[in-house]
UniProtKB/TrEMBL annotation:
PANTHER family: INNER MEMBRANE METABOLITE TRANSPORT PROTEIN YHJE (PTHR43045:SF2), SHIKIMATE TRANSPORTER (PTHR43045)
Domain Major facilitator superfamily (MFS) profile, residue spans: 23-458
The name this protein goes by in its record: MFS transporter
Any Pfam family matching the protein: Sugar_tr
Compartment(s): Cell membrane
Protein backbone atom coordinates (compact mmCIF):
# COMPACT_ATOMS: atom_id res chain seq x y z
CA UNK A 1 0.00 0.00 0.00
CA UNK A 2 1.31 3.46 -0.78
CA UNK A 3 2.41 5.76 1.98
CA UNK A 4 -0.23 8.26 3.09
CA UNK A 5 0.55 11.73 1.85
CA UNK A 6 1.14 14.43 4.49
CA UNK A 7 1.78 17.26 2.03
CA UNK A 8 0.02 20.45 3.07
CA UNK A 9 -2.58 21.80 0.73
CA UNK A 10 -1.55 25.19 -0.54
CA UNK A 11 -3.48 25.27 -3.79
CA UNK A 12 -6.60 27.33 -3.87
CA UNK A 13 -9.74 25.31 -3.43
CA UNK A 14 -13.01 26.67 -4.83
CA UNK A 15 -15.05 28.39 -2.12
CA UNK A 16 -18.38 27.16 -3.42
CA UNK A 17 -19.64 24.18 -1.44
CA UNK A 18 -22.74 22.04 -1.19
CA UNK A 19 -25.32 22.81 1.46
CA UNK A 20 -26.33 20.05 3.85
CA UNK A 21 -29.83 19.86 2.37
CA UNK A 22 -28.50 19.62 -1.18
CA UNK A 23 -26.05 16.85 -0.24
CA UNK A 24 -28.61 14.75 1.60
CA UNK A 25 -31.36 15.20 -0.98
CA UNK A 26 -29.05 14.55 -3.95
CA UNK A 27 -27.72 11.34 -2.41
CA UNK A 28 -31.22 10.23 -1.40
CA UNK A 29 -33.15 11.06 -4.60
CA UNK A 30 -30.62 9.39 -6.89
CA UNK A 31 -30.51 6.07 -5.07
CA UNK A 32 -34.29 6.16 -4.59
CA UNK A 33 -34.75 6.41 -8.36
CA UNK A 34 -32.10 3.81 -9.13
CA UNK A 35 -33.50 1.30 -6.65
CA UNK A 36 -37.07 2.07 -7.73
CA UNK A 37 -36.11 1.12 -11.28
CA UNK A 38 -34.27 -1.98 -10.08
CA UNK A 39 -37.15 -3.18 -7.90
CA UNK A 40 -39.77 -2.49 -10.53
CA UNK A 41 -38.02 -5.11 -12.61
CA UNK A 42 -37.63 -7.47 -9.63
CA UNK A 43 -41.36 -7.33 -8.87
CA UNK A 44 -42.35 -7.70 -12.50
CA UNK A 45 -40.00 -10.69 -12.84
CA UNK A 46 -42.18 -12.49 -10.31
CA UNK A 47 -45.62 -11.17 -11.28
CA UNK A 48 -45.67 -10.99 -15.10
CA UNK A 49 -42.37 -11.69 -16.85
CA UNK A 50 -42.57 -15.51 -16.60
CA UNK A 51 -45.91 -15.40 -18.44
CA UNK A 52 -45.04 -12.64 -20.92
CA UNK A 53 -41.56 -13.69 -21.97
CA UNK A 54 -41.58 -17.46 -21.37
CA UNK A 55 -45.13 -18.52 -22.26
CA UNK A 56 -44.15 -22.01 -23.42
CA UNK A 57 -42.14 -23.01 -20.35
CA UNK A 58 -43.48 -24.82 -17.30
CA UNK A 59 -44.37 -22.60 -14.36
CA UNK A 60 -41.19 -23.20 -12.35
CA UNK A 61 -38.93 -23.02 -15.45
CA UNK A 62 -40.53 -19.74 -16.46
CA UNK A 63 -39.86 -18.34 -12.98
CA UNK A 64 -36.26 -19.57 -13.05
CA UNK A 65 -35.77 -18.06 -16.54
CA UNK A 66 -37.09 -14.71 -15.35
CA UNK A 67 -34.73 -14.81 -12.35
CA UNK A 68 -31.83 -15.77 -14.62
CA UNK A 69 -32.38 -12.53 -16.57
CA UNK A 70 -32.78 -10.77 -13.22
CA UNK A 71 -29.26 -12.01 -12.43
CA UNK A 72 -27.83 -10.52 -15.64
CA UNK A 73 -27.78 -7.13 -13.95
CA UNK A 74 -25.48 -8.44 -11.25
CA UNK A 75 -22.99 -9.58 -13.87
CA UNK A 76 -23.10 -6.07 -15.36
CA UNK A 77 -22.67 -4.30 -12.03
CA UNK A 78 -18.91 -4.93 -11.58
CA UNK A 79 -18.39 -3.68 -15.14
CA UNK A 80 -20.39 -0.59 -14.23
CA UNK A 81 -18.26 -0.07 -11.14
CA UNK A 82 -15.11 -0.17 -13.26
CA UNK A 83 -16.53 2.14 -15.95
CA UNK A 84 -18.17 4.73 -13.71
CA UNK A 85 -15.53 4.36 -11.00
CA UNK A 86 -12.78 5.20 -13.51
CA UNK A 87 -14.46 8.44 -14.57
CA UNK A 88 -15.65 9.22 -11.04
CA UNK A 89 -12.08 9.17 -9.74
CA UNK A 90 -10.58 10.94 -12.77
CA UNK A 91 -13.21 13.52 -13.73
CA UNK A 92 -15.32 13.87 -10.61
CA UNK A 93 -18.40 12.49 -8.87
CA UNK A 94 -21.02 14.88 -10.28
CA UNK A 95 -20.87 14.11 -14.02
CA UNK A 96 -20.50 10.39 -13.38
CA UNK A 97 -23.62 10.33 -11.22
CA UNK A 98 -25.61 12.15 -13.89
CA UNK A 99 -24.49 9.59 -16.50
CA UNK A 100 -25.42 6.62 -14.32
CA UNK A 101 -28.86 8.07 -13.60
CA UNK A 102 -29.57 8.64 -17.29
CA UNK A 103 -28.47 5.12 -18.19
CA UNK A 104 -30.72 3.53 -15.57
CA UNK A 105 -33.69 5.77 -16.35
CA UNK A 106 -33.69 5.19 -20.10
CA UNK A 107 -33.24 1.42 -19.75
CA UNK A 108 -36.15 1.18 -17.32
CA UNK A 109 -38.38 3.40 -19.44
CA UNK A 110 -37.76 1.27 -22.54
CA UNK A 111 -38.61 -1.99 -20.70
CA UNK A 112 -42.13 -0.62 -20.47
CA UNK A 113 -42.45 -0.76 -24.27
CA UNK A 114 -41.28 -4.34 -24.83
CA UNK A 115 -43.87 -6.60 -26.51
CA UNK A 116 -44.72 -10.07 -25.24
CA UNK A 117 -42.75 -13.03 -26.60
CA UNK A 118 -45.17 -13.97 -29.37
CA UNK A 119 -44.85 -14.46 -33.11
CA UNK A 120 -41.75 -12.73 -34.47
CA UNK A 121 -40.93 -11.43 -30.97
CA UNK A 122 -40.64 -14.87 -29.39
CA UNK A 123 -36.82 -14.56 -29.33
CA UNK A 124 -36.32 -10.81 -29.72
CA UNK A 125 -38.45 -9.79 -26.72
CA UNK A 126 -36.44 -11.82 -24.16
CA UNK A 127 -33.22 -10.74 -25.91
CA UNK A 128 -34.04 -7.03 -25.59
CA UNK A 129 -35.08 -7.64 -21.98
CA UNK A 130 -31.62 -9.08 -21.31
CA UNK A 131 -29.94 -6.06 -22.95
CA UNK A 132 -31.98 -3.52 -21.00
CA UNK A 133 -31.49 -5.46 -17.78
CA UNK A 134 -27.75 -5.41 -18.45
CA UNK A 135 -27.93 -1.62 -18.85
CA UNK A 136 -29.75 -1.35 -15.52
CA UNK A 137 -27.00 -3.31 -13.82
CA UNK A 138 -24.29 -1.24 -15.51
CA UNK A 139 -25.88 1.96 -14.20
CA UNK A 140 -26.43 0.70 -10.66
CA UNK A 141 -22.81 -0.45 -10.61
CA UNK A 142 -21.74 3.19 -10.75
CA UNK A 143 -24.64 4.79 -8.89
CA UNK A 144 -24.28 3.52 -5.36
CA UNK A 145 -20.65 4.41 -4.77
CA UNK A 146 -21.04 7.90 -6.23
CA UNK A 147 -24.09 8.63 -4.10
CA UNK A 148 -22.31 7.29 -1.00
CA UNK A 149 -19.35 9.60 -1.69
CA UNK A 150 -21.60 12.62 -2.22
CA UNK A 151 -22.93 12.01 1.29
CA UNK A 152 -19.80 10.93 3.17
CA UNK A 153 -17.23 13.22 1.52
CA UNK A 154 -19.43 16.22 2.33
CA UNK A 155 -20.21 15.08 5.88
CA UNK A 156 -19.01 16.98 8.98
CA UNK A 157 -16.57 15.30 11.34
CA UNK A 158 -18.00 12.32 13.24
CA UNK A 159 -21.14 12.25 11.08
CA UNK A 160 -20.08 10.23 8.03
CA UNK A 161 -22.18 7.21 9.02
CA UNK A 162 -25.18 9.43 9.71
CA UNK A 163 -24.93 11.20 6.34
CA UNK A 164 -24.20 7.84 4.74
CA UNK A 165 -27.61 6.47 5.75
CA UNK A 166 -29.34 8.83 3.31
CA UNK A 167 -28.19 7.16 0.07
CA UNK A 168 -28.93 3.84 1.81
CA UNK A 169 -32.44 5.04 2.58
CA UNK A 170 -33.04 5.18 -1.17
CA UNK A 171 -33.21 1.37 -1.24
CA UNK A 172 -36.30 0.97 1.00
CA UNK A 173 -37.93 4.11 -0.40
CA UNK A 174 -37.47 2.91 -3.98
CA UNK A 175 -38.89 -0.47 -3.02
CA UNK A 176 -41.91 1.06 -1.27
CA UNK A 177 -42.73 3.36 -4.20
CA UNK A 178 -42.33 0.65 -6.85
CA UNK A 179 -44.34 -1.97 -5.02
CA UNK A 180 -47.05 0.45 -3.89
CA UNK A 181 -47.67 1.27 -7.54
CA UNK A 182 -47.84 -2.45 -8.37
CA UNK A 183 -50.32 -3.06 -5.52
CA UNK A 184 -52.54 -0.17 -6.64
CA UNK A 185 -52.51 -1.43 -10.21
CA UNK A 186 -53.31 -5.01 -9.22
CA UNK A 187 -56.13 -3.89 -6.95
CA UNK A 188 -57.72 -1.60 -9.55
CA UNK A 189 -57.22 -3.53 -12.78
CA UNK A 190 -58.44 -6.90 -13.90
CA UNK A 191 -55.82 -9.64 -14.30
CA UNK A 192 -56.13 -9.28 -18.08
CA UNK A 193 -55.64 -5.49 -17.98
CA UNK A 194 -52.66 -5.77 -15.66
CA UNK A 195 -51.00 -8.37 -17.89
CA UNK A 196 -51.79 -6.42 -21.08
CA UNK A 197 -50.59 -2.95 -20.05
CA UNK A 198 -50.83 -2.30 -16.30
CA UNK A 199 -47.40 -3.71 -15.50
CA UNK A 200 -45.85 -1.17 -17.89
CA UNK A 201 -46.97 1.88 -15.87
CA UNK A 202 -44.23 1.67 -13.18
CA UNK A 203 -41.58 1.54 -15.92
CA UNK A 204 -43.04 4.55 -17.73
CA UNK A 205 -43.35 6.50 -14.48
CA UNK A 206 -39.60 6.23 -13.89
CA UNK A 207 -38.87 8.93 -16.48
CA UNK A 208 -40.60 11.53 -14.29
CA UNK A 209 -38.42 10.59 -11.32
CA UNK A 210 -35.29 10.69 -13.47
CA UNK A 211 -36.06 14.28 -14.50
CA UNK A 212 -36.28 15.29 -10.83
CA UNK A 213 -33.05 13.48 -10.01
CA UNK A 214 -31.16 15.15 -12.85
CA UNK A 215 -32.33 18.61 -11.76
CA UNK A 216 -30.98 18.00 -8.25
CA UNK A 217 -27.68 16.43 -9.26
CA UNK A 218 -26.79 19.03 -11.85
CA UNK A 219 -26.73 21.60 -9.04
CA UNK A 220 -24.05 19.75 -7.05
CA UNK A 221 -20.41 20.87 -6.79
CA UNK A 222 -17.51 18.49 -6.19
CA UNK A 223 -16.64 17.53 -2.60
CA UNK A 224 -13.72 19.13 -0.76
CA UNK A 225 -11.93 15.77 -0.71
CA UNK A 226 -11.95 15.41 -4.49
CA UNK A 227 -11.14 19.10 -5.00
CA UNK A 228 -8.00 18.62 -2.90
CA UNK A 229 -7.02 15.59 -4.97
CA UNK A 230 -7.21 17.86 -8.00
CA UNK A 231 -5.34 20.68 -6.27
CA UNK A 232 -2.52 18.36 -5.20
CA UNK A 233 -2.37 16.75 -8.65
CA UNK A 234 -3.02 13.36 -7.03
CA UNK A 235 -5.61 12.15 -9.53
CA UNK A 236 -4.94 8.50 -10.30
CA UNK A 237 -4.03 7.85 -13.94
CA UNK A 238 -5.50 4.38 -13.71
CA UNK A 239 -7.90 4.05 -10.76
CA UNK A 240 -8.73 0.41 -11.47
CA UNK A 241 -5.08 -0.62 -11.75
CA UNK A 242 -4.13 1.30 -8.59
CA UNK A 243 -7.08 -0.17 -6.70
CA UNK A 244 -6.11 -3.77 -7.39
CA UNK A 245 -2.37 -3.14 -7.10
CA UNK A 246 -2.30 -1.24 -3.81
CA UNK A 247 -5.71 -1.90 -2.21
CA UNK A 248 -6.72 -5.43 -3.17
CA UNK A 249 -7.04 -6.46 0.48
CA UNK A 250 -9.60 -3.70 0.99
CA UNK A 251 -11.50 -4.92 -2.09
CA UNK A 252 -11.67 -8.46 -0.70
CA UNK A 253 -12.66 -7.22 2.75
CA UNK A 254 -15.37 -4.92 1.41
CA UNK A 255 -16.74 -7.64 -0.85
CA UNK A 256 -17.33 -10.03 2.04
CA UNK A 257 -18.41 -7.34 4.51
CA UNK A 258 -21.31 -6.68 2.14
CA UNK A 259 -21.97 -10.37 1.37
CA UNK A 260 -24.55 -11.24 4.06
CA UNK A 261 -26.39 -7.97 3.39
CA UNK A 262 -26.97 -8.90 -0.24
CA UNK A 263 -28.04 -12.47 0.46
CA UNK A 264 -30.46 -11.34 3.18
CA UNK A 265 -32.07 -8.65 1.08
CA UNK A 266 -32.78 -10.76 -2.00
CA UNK A 267 -34.09 -13.61 0.11
CA UNK A 268 -36.38 -11.19 1.92
CA UNK A 269 -37.74 -9.64 -1.27
CA UNK A 270 -37.51 -11.70 -4.45
CA UNK A 271 -37.51 -15.16 -2.87
CA UNK A 272 -40.18 -14.53 -0.25
CA UNK A 273 -42.44 -12.99 -2.91
CA UNK A 274 -42.13 -16.18 -4.95
CA UNK A 275 -42.44 -18.56 -1.99
CA UNK A 276 -45.13 -16.54 -0.21
CA UNK A 277 -47.43 -16.36 -3.24
CA UNK A 278 -46.89 -19.93 -4.45
CA UNK A 279 -49.98 -22.19 -3.97
CA UNK A 280 -50.10 -23.92 -0.60
CA UNK A 281 -52.10 -26.94 -1.80
CA UNK A 282 -52.36 -28.97 -5.03
CA UNK A 283 -55.93 -27.69 -5.41
CA UNK A 284 -54.75 -24.07 -5.39
CA UNK A 285 -52.00 -24.95 -7.85
CA UNK A 286 -54.46 -26.66 -10.20
CA UNK A 287 -56.82 -23.68 -10.09
CA UNK A 288 -53.95 -21.24 -10.79
CA UNK A 289 -52.73 -23.38 -13.71
CA UNK A 290 -56.22 -23.57 -15.19
CA UNK A 291 -56.61 -19.79 -14.91
CA UNK A 292 -53.31 -19.33 -16.77
CA UNK A 293 -54.33 -21.88 -19.42
CA UNK A 294 -51.60 -24.34 -18.45
CA UNK A 295 -51.69 -28.01 -17.51
CA UNK A 296 -51.09 -28.90 -13.86
CA UNK A 297 -48.56 -31.63 -13.01
CA UNK A 298 -49.13 -32.79 -9.42
CA UNK A 299 -45.79 -34.63 -9.36
CA UNK A 300 -43.90 -31.37 -9.71
CA UNK A 301 -45.94 -29.50 -7.10
CA UNK A 302 -43.96 -27.76 -4.34
CA UNK A 303 -46.01 -25.92 -1.70
CA UNK A 304 -45.59 -22.28 -0.77
CA UNK A 305 -47.59 -20.10 1.62
CA UNK A 306 -50.52 -19.51 -0.76
CA UNK A 307 -50.91 -15.80 0.05
CA UNK A 308 -52.51 -13.63 -2.63
CA UNK A 309 -49.97 -11.49 -4.49
CA UNK A 310 -51.46 -8.05 -3.70
CA UNK A 311 -51.70 -9.05 -0.04
CA UNK A 312 -48.12 -10.33 0.12
CA UNK A 313 -46.84 -7.21 -1.64
CA UNK A 314 -48.57 -5.16 1.05
CA UNK A 315 -46.88 -7.31 3.71
CA UNK A 316 -43.55 -6.71 2.00
CA UNK A 317 -44.13 -2.96 1.96
CA UNK A 318 -44.86 -3.03 5.71
CA UNK A 319 -41.65 -4.98 6.24
CA UNK A 320 -39.65 -2.50 4.16
CA UNK A 321 -40.90 0.35 6.36
CA UNK A 322 -38.92 -1.33 9.16
CA UNK A 323 -35.99 -1.57 6.72
CA UNK A 324 -36.12 2.23 6.33
CA UNK A 325 -36.48 2.90 10.06
CA UNK A 326 -33.52 0.72 11.02
CA UNK A 327 -31.41 2.15 8.20
CA UNK A 328 -31.73 5.56 9.85
CA UNK A 329 -31.16 4.14 13.33
CA UNK A 330 -28.01 2.31 12.25
CA UNK A 331 -26.14 5.50 11.32
CA UNK A 332 -25.96 7.05 14.80
CA UNK A 333 -25.34 3.64 16.39
CA UNK A 334 -22.42 2.80 14.09
CA UNK A 335 -21.07 6.32 14.68
CA UNK A 336 -21.25 5.81 18.46
CA UNK A 337 -19.96 2.24 18.74
CA UNK A 338 -17.91 2.00 15.54
CA UNK A 339 -18.82 0.36 12.21
CA UNK A 340 -17.00 -2.92 12.93
CA UNK A 341 -18.40 -3.57 16.41
CA UNK A 342 -21.95 -2.63 15.39
CA UNK A 343 -21.87 -4.81 12.26
CA UNK A 344 -20.43 -7.77 14.16
CA UNK A 345 -23.49 -7.76 16.43
CA UNK A 346 -25.97 -7.31 13.58
CA UNK A 347 -24.35 -10.02 11.44
CA UNK A 348 -24.43 -12.47 14.35
CA UNK A 349 -28.17 -11.80 14.62
CA UNK A 350 -28.51 -12.49 10.86
CA UNK A 351 -26.91 -15.91 11.43
CA UNK A 352 -29.43 -16.64 14.20
CA UNK A 353 -32.26 -15.43 11.95
CA UNK A 354 -31.13 -17.82 9.21
CA UNK A 355 -31.07 -20.77 11.61
CA UNK A 356 -34.66 -19.98 12.72
CA UNK A 357 -35.91 -19.33 9.17
CA UNK A 358 -38.52 -22.11 9.08
CA UNK A 359 -40.09 -20.83 12.30
CA UNK A 360 -40.51 -17.39 10.76
CA UNK A 361 -41.74 -18.58 7.38
CA UNK A 362 -43.87 -21.54 8.33
CA UNK A 363 -47.55 -21.84 7.34
CA UNK A 364 -49.71 -18.80 8.01
CA UNK A 365 -49.69 -15.08 7.39
CA UNK A 366 -48.78 -14.03 10.92
CA UNK A 367 -45.44 -15.91 11.12
CA UNK A 368 -44.57 -14.61 7.63
CA UNK A 369 -45.34 -11.02 8.65
CA UNK A 370 -43.20 -11.39 11.80
CA UNK A 371 -40.41 -12.90 9.69
CA UNK A 372 -40.57 -10.04 7.20
CA UNK A 373 -40.41 -7.43 9.96
CA UNK A 374 -37.46 -9.06 11.73
CA UNK A 375 -35.60 -9.74 8.48
CA UNK A 376 -36.13 -6.23 7.15
CA UNK A 377 -35.10 -4.69 10.49
CA UNK A 378 -31.84 -6.64 10.32
CA UNK A 379 -31.49 -5.58 6.69
CA UNK A 380 -31.70 -1.89 7.58
CA UNK A 381 -29.25 -2.36 10.44
CA UNK A 382 -26.61 -4.00 8.24
CA UNK A 383 -27.22 -1.90 5.12
CA UNK A 384 -27.12 1.54 6.76
CA UNK A 385 -23.41 1.62 7.71
CA UNK A 386 -22.21 0.30 4.34
CA UNK A 387 -22.09 3.76 2.76
CA UNK A 388 -19.56 4.73 5.42
CA UNK A 389 -17.45 1.62 5.95
CA UNK A 390 -16.84 0.70 2.28
CA UNK A 391 -15.61 4.18 1.18
CA UNK A 392 -13.53 4.40 4.38
CA UNK A 393 -11.54 1.36 3.27
CA UNK A 394 -10.03 3.35 0.34
CA UNK A 395 -8.06 6.59 -0.18
CA UNK A 396 -9.69 9.56 -1.90
CA UNK A 397 -8.16 9.16 -5.36
CA UNK A 398 -9.45 5.59 -5.81
CA UNK A 399 -12.37 5.76 -3.39
CA UNK A 400 -15.09 5.75 -6.07
CA UNK A 401 -13.52 2.82 -7.91
CA UNK A 402 -12.56 0.80 -4.85
CA UNK A 403 -15.85 1.06 -2.98
CA UNK A 404 -17.84 0.48 -6.18
CA UNK A 405 -15.86 -2.65 -7.12
CA UNK A 406 -16.17 -4.14 -3.61
CA UNK A 407 -19.89 -3.35 -3.44
CA UNK A 408 -20.62 -4.82 -6.84
CA UNK A 409 -18.34 -7.85 -6.67
CA UNK A 410 -20.35 -8.72 -3.59
CA UNK A 411 -23.49 -8.42 -5.69
CA UNK A 412 -22.14 -11.12 -8.04
CA UNK A 413 -21.49 -13.66 -5.29
CA UNK A 414 -24.24 -12.54 -2.92
CA UNK A 415 -27.21 -11.00 -4.71
CA UNK A 416 -27.10 -12.56 -8.18
CA UNK A 417 -27.47 -16.21 -7.13
CA UNK A 418 -29.52 -15.61 -3.98
CA UNK A 419 -33.04 -15.94 -5.41
CA UNK A 420 -32.04 -18.69 -7.83
CA UNK A 421 -30.27 -20.73 -5.15
CA UNK A 422 -33.09 -20.23 -2.65
CA UNK A 423 -35.71 -21.40 -5.15
CA UNK A 424 -33.59 -24.45 -6.00
CA UNK A 425 -33.19 -25.29 -2.28
CA UNK A 426 -36.91 -24.82 -1.71
CA UNK A 427 -37.70 -27.08 -4.67
CA UNK A 428 -35.17 -29.72 -3.57
CA UNK A 429 -36.66 -29.69 -0.08
CA UNK A 430 -40.12 -30.37 -1.41
CA UNK A 431 -41.44 -27.14 0.11
CA UNK A 432 -39.25 -27.18 3.24
CA UNK A 433 -37.16 -24.00 3.41
CA UNK A 434 -34.74 -25.04 6.17
CA UNK A 435 -31.79 -25.05 3.76
CA UNK A 436 -32.68 -21.55 2.61
CA UNK A 437 -32.07 -20.45 6.19
CA UNK A 438 -28.82 -22.39 6.38
CA UNK A 439 -27.70 -20.64 3.18
CA UNK A 440 -28.34 -17.25 4.83
CA UNK A 441 -26.55 -18.29 8.01
CA UNK A 442 -23.50 -19.40 6.00
CA UNK A 443 -23.40 -16.00 4.28
CA UNK A 444 -23.49 -14.38 7.72
CA UNK A 445 -20.54 -16.46 8.90
CA UNK A 446 -18.51 -15.35 5.84
CA UNK A 447 -19.24 -11.71 6.67
CA UNK A 448 -18.34 -12.22 10.34
CA UNK A 449 -14.93 -13.54 9.28
CA UNK A 450 -14.36 -10.52 7.01
CA UNK A 451 -15.29 -8.10 9.79
CA UNK A 452 -13.02 -9.85 12.30
CA UNK A 453 -10.12 -9.46 9.86
CA UNK A 454 -10.79 -5.73 9.27
CA UNK A 455 -9.78 -2.78 11.45
CA UNK A 456 -12.20 -0.12 12.64
CA UNK A 457 -12.56 2.72 10.08
CA UNK A 458 -14.68 5.24 12.02
CA UNK A 459 -11.80 7.60 12.85
CA UNK A 460 -10.16 7.44 9.44
CA UNK A 461 -9.57 10.90 7.95
CA UNK A 462 -10.83 11.62 4.41
CA UNK A 463 -9.14 14.93 3.63
CA UNK A 464 -5.48 13.93 3.13
CA UNK A 465 -5.88 10.18 2.83
CA UNK A 466 -4.22 9.90 -0.55
CA UNK A 467 -2.66 6.83 -2.12
Amino acid sequence: MRKVSTVAVTDAVPAKTNTRGRVLFASLIGTTIEFYDFYAYATASVLVFPTLFFPNATNINAILSAFAIFGVAFIARPLGSILFGHYGDKLGRKGTLVASLLTMGLATFLIGFLPAAQGSWVILAPLFLVILRFAQGLALGGEWSGAALVATENAPANKRAIYGTFPQLGAPLGFIIANTIFVLLQNNLTAEEFLAWGWRVPFWFSIVMVAIGLWVRLRLVESASFQKVLAQDKVSKSPVKDTFRFHWRAVVAGTFIMFATYVLFYLMTSFTLTYGTAPATPEQAAAAAAKAGKAFNPEGFVPGLGIARPEFLTMLIIGVVFFAIFTLISGPLSEKFGRRKFLLVVTALIVVFGLTWTTMFGPGKTPAMVGLIIGMSLMGSTFGPMAAILPELFPTNVRYTGSAIAYNLSSVIGAAPASFVAIALWQAGGGNTVWVGVYLAAAGVATLIALLMTRETRDKEFENNLA
